[in-house]
Amino acid sequence: MSISASTTNNLDAFWMPFTANRQFKQAPRMFVGAKDMHYTTADGRQVLDGTAGLWCCNAGHSRPRIVEAVQKQVAELDYAPAFQMGHPKAFELAARLAALLPSPLDHVFFTNSGSESVDTALKIALAYQRAIGQGTRTRLIGRERGYHGVGFGGISVGGIVNNRKTFGTMLTGVDHMRHTHDPSRNAFSRGMPEHGAEYAEDLIRIIQLHDPSTIAAVIVEPVAGSTGVILPPKKYLERLRAICDQHGILLIFDEVITGFGRLGSPFATDYFGVTPDLVTTAKGLTSGVIPMGAVFCTKAIYDAFMTGPDHMIELFHGYTYSAHPIACAAALATLDTYDEEGLLTRAADLAQYWEDGLHALKDCPHVIDIRNLGLIGAIELEGIAGEPTKRAFSAFLKAYDDGLLIRTTGDIIALSPPLIISKEQIDELFDKLRTVLNSID
Ligand SMILES: Cc1ncc(COP(=O)(O)O)c(C=O)c1O
């Protein structure tokens, strides 16, 4: 017997991801619609989206151009094999994306998620080093508190303890730099923190320990999101780039959340003026409408693979749904929407207003730090002794009841609204949040 999604009361079968399943199933929070800046709940309430879904709906919800493109595409070409066959929209999309990234990031490999983009980038890095005769370079370096999705590659280079500790030994040959979070010096910084460029020198320690000839790549989020928003100190990323260059190590920026306008420029690589060798993306690529990811690499990396007999596959890697036609159609329409509405740079115009509104919450109860960059915000709360995460989760539940979607990780509230947010909606968001913070224990 089929059960309608809106009437089902059997919540048991679905094992929800990154969710407190038992808590949710006692008091479900269901969205049944979305338009522009709002979700509609099953009980008919409007909820202001303070998180762009999961950092992905950068153009807002149910945007007509994207909806129409997806509808048209599914009726025209539902699927084309991804291996040894092509379809025009894949090439059109790759060319448009390559034009969006600074040169020499000229080539694009399509995936279906951020996690797949990360694993793809790590594999390309390893295979590239081998292709150029540097096959001893097999180590991958990540960073404490880094989040790079949930594949085995991503959790290995990632540095969030709960995402790692129950999953065995993961990849071998991985090491981690220290994170850059330094509240003792940087609490309540506005924008990039002043202190901590020297944390990049931790990479030197790792290089000295393992020898550069063993290290293939370093991966970092230019702005770490899922760990609770950790910003790069001024000059930190430049220093990482210089150290990697000096030692023949590839630098990978995981731009799954920073890509597509979050900081007020198309990518963090533009924002910080630091160009990595590989960039991982997903989320905002299709504004969250259809799963899709993309890995960008330099011409030098791509060219290193284009050797050997013409009929031979150059990279033994790919997904059944790489460059899926419907995802390509969604991405092209998303790029059109971004262009028409100036969304890839809109966060720059709103950043100061956002920063002022966010930091005005400084005097609310329990707040021990506030961080911001572009249209990203974080409010760190003092945890309840012996009950970590509980206070922020209470804030999340109260905000939802009050018509606001926020995201929490640990005792940190993270904010990343769609890039179409108006100043009035920014005011509304922070007003609601003030009420929430004033009412939780
Ligand atoms: C920086 C970063 N990398 C990778 C991922 C994983 O993306 P996905 O959930 O699409 O696999 C995320 C998701 O939040 C992310 O923030």
Compact summary:
This protein is an alpha/beta fold. It contains 16 helices and 15 strands. Helices cover 37% and strands 16% of the residues.
Unreliable parts: none
The helix-and-strand class reads: alpha/beta
Q: How does the major sheet shape up?
A: 7 strands, mixed
Chain-averaged pLDDT: 97
Query: How many E strands?
Result: 15
CATH topology of the largest domain: Aspartate Aminotransferase, domain 2
CATH superfamily of the largest domain: Type I PLP-dependent aspartate aminotransferase-like (Major domain)
Domains (count)? 2
- Range of helix content: 25-40%
Backbone shape: globular
Order the strands across the largest sheet as they lie in space: 4-10-9-8-7-5-6
CATH class of the largest domain: Alpha Beta
- Ligand species: pyridoxal-5'-phosphate
Share in β-strands: 15-25%
In the CATH classification, which architecture of the largest domain applies? 3-Layer(aba) Sandwich
Enumerate how many helices there are, as a single number. Answer: 16
Radius of gyration: 22 Å
